[in-house]
Amino acid sequence: MDTATQRRKFFIHPSSQLKYIVMSVVPAIFVTFACAYFLLASGEMLITIEESKLSVQLFPLRQAVNQLQLSAGSSREAVQRLRMVRYEVDYLEDSLKLSYYDMVRRWSLAKLTVYNMLAAAVIGISLLALIVSHRVAGPLLRVRRCLDLMSEGKDVPPVRFRYYDEFKEVGEALEALRSSLKGKGFLK
């Protein structure tokens, strides 16, 4: 298998790359989920507080209207005023409920956004860790293959690493060794 084909694989050296990815991703996931949990928990607490405010704010108004209705008697003007007050209380209740339900809807959208961002972050961190692990595992695989062939006395093509690969100095040292062994006639 040639080098170009080998570099198209997702995992060049699965055991070391998976360890690297896990070591990179697990702490990031932990911190991300901890932050998201505290954010979502505080949002849920705020929703609960707002819900309790809704019932607490309206209860005294309803109670006052009921007591006024009982004490007003049958006076036409008093009954009409009470109807207006009841209408205003109903309007206030509807307005507060709409505001509350709108807040709950927006909070649901915010939670969905947070969950999507968490998923994207985990996938992004995983892919980034995979890419970085290729920059380490690829050169090490190339060095190992060259050393295996050279130990059998076989010549290998010049050792070159990609621009963004790690361990370039090891590749340069291996190339110097290869050139030296070839110059002395040890490689065929």
Mind explaining what this structure looks like?
- The protein has helices at 3-6, 14-72, 76-151, 168-183.
- The longest helix is centred in the middle third of the chain and has 76 residues, at 76-151.
- It is mainly alpha-helical.
- The protein is rod-shaped, with a radius of gyration of 36 Å.
- The model has no long low-confidence stretch (mean pLDDT 84).
- The chain is built from 4 helices and no strands.
- The chain has one domain (11-183).
- α3 (76-151) packs parallel to α4 (168-183).
Counted by DSSP, the helix tally is 4
Largest sheet: none
The count of DSSP E runs of length 2 or more, i.e. the number of strands, is: 0
Helix content: over 70%
Features:
188 residues; mainly alpha; rod-shaped
SSE inventory with pairings:
Blueprint: H1 3-6, H2 14-72, H3 76-151, H4 168-183
In short:
With 188 residues, the protein is mostly helical. The chain has four helices and no strands.
